[in-house]
Structure formats: structure tokens, C-alpha cells
Recover the amino acids of this structure.
């Protein structure tokens, strides 16, 4: 049922944006952003459920939460950057969208360094 609500909101927003765009393009962008925020809020509860499961599995596996926290931050950056870039593209600002995506990739690389170092250190311990 959740997906039906999300699709319905998306379709209604799309129709409204198409109708309003010819008369008031600035309002069309705001409608698009509002629809995106509403859809995000609808799935926010699901995200917290996933986080709880991941924390539980991490504890059972004996993985350091620092690494899992970093991975979750990376995933969050990717989703938020994609959301922002799509809004910019909807507004006709492809160049700004590209800059958002580039900045997100750099931030992801920075966050990934400790994980890569940990993996390489573990591999070096395995090789005699």
C-alpha cells in the first residue's frame, strides 16, 4: 500500500507541475520540491527500521560501529545528493546538479578512506 500512496503523490504532483509550469514556472519547482519532501517523509519511518536491523546485525557480527556508521553516512550522502541534484535538474540547472554530484563523490571518498585503510591493514596481516 505504501508504494501506491507514493506513486499517487508523484503522479498528482507531476500533473500539477505540468499544468502550472506554463503559467508560473517558479511555483512548479516548489510543487516538485514539496512532493519530494512529502515522499521522503513517508519513507522516513522505513529508514529507521532498516537502521535498527543494521545495528543489530552489526552487533551480532562483531563489526566496529564506527565503520558501519561511516557506511551509513556514505549512503545518506549519496541519497541526499541525488535528491538535490534531481531538484536542480527539474529546475533546469543541470550544471548545479553536476556540481552537487561531484561534491558528494568527494565527500564519499573522504569518508571511505578509514574503511579502505582498515581493509588493507587486515589484508596485510593475512599475507605473511
Amino acid at each position: 500500500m505504501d508504494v501506491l500512496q507514493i506513486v499517487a503523490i508523484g503522479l498528482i504532483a507531476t500533473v500539477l507541475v505540468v499544468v502550472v509550469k506554463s503559467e508560473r514556472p517558479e511555483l512548479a519547482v516548489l510543487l516538485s520540491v514539496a512532493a519530494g519532501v512529502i515522499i521522503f517523509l513517508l519513507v522516513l519511518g522505513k529508514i529507521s527500521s532498516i537502521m535498527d536491523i543494521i545495528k543489530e546485525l552489526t552487533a551480532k557480527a562483531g563489526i566496529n560501529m564506527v565503520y558501519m556508521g561511516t557506511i551509513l553516512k556514505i549512503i545518506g550522502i549519496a541519497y541526499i545528493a541525488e535528491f538535490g541534484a534531481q531538484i536542480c535538474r527539474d529546475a533546469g540547472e543541470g550544471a548545479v546538479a553536476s556540481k552537487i554530484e561531484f561534491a558528494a563523490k568527494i565527500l564519499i571518498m573522504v569518508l571511505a578512506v578509514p574503511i579502505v585503510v582498515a581493509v588493507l591493514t587486515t589484508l596485510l596481516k593475512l599475507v605473511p
User: Anything to note?
Assistant: Residues 25-61 form the longest helix (37 residues). The helical segments are 2-21, 25-61, 65-90, 94-126. The chain has four helices and no strands.
